[in-house]
Amino acid sequence: MSAPPDLPSIVSRAFDVSRKSGYVSFCRNETGRLLATLAATRTGTLAEFGTGCGVGTAWLRSGVRGDVRIVTAELDAKLADAAAEIFVDDDSVEVLAADWSTLRDQGPFSLLFLDSGTPSAVGVDSIAELVEPGGIVVLDDFVPCELWPPITGGRVDTLREQWLTDDRFTAVEVMIASDASAIIATRR
User: Fold this and answer.
1) pLDDT tens, residue by residue, 47-77
2) How far is residue 48's CA from residue 36's CA, in Å, rounded to a whole number?
């Protein structure tokens, strides 16, 4: 059995910054590899809502090619400052200590990554116009569900249901690990 691929150096730096900051809620490697793969197909501007210490941003950056810009917003100024350290010499990445809504004027985005736990930010209506036609939205941190309508914690998971059924997107839920899934939605 072979070992998993090495982490890109920028991702390793992001993990180091996260550890030094005491921040442990970061993008899983499985999600990160998905982000890097999708980022490699994109041009224009990519965005992330909820930077944390920059692990997801680092995964996006590891996959981009050419003249692509990444802008990311983190509400917690301490975390945003920590993430900014990773990209201090990288003009293609901008880390903002701000609410996600400050990015509205910087789109449309060709790829938008956000955590499904971000309050009110992830509703389809809040996001649809921020993504260009053919653009991709990635939402992570779902628990895999085999039921329809999707049930999480004994209740209908309306967020998952919204994203998987909205006519403005073609969407799929993909398992990234036995205990985690993500939704990938492409704007029509």
Assistant:
1) 999 999 999 999 999 999 999 999 999 999 9
2) 13
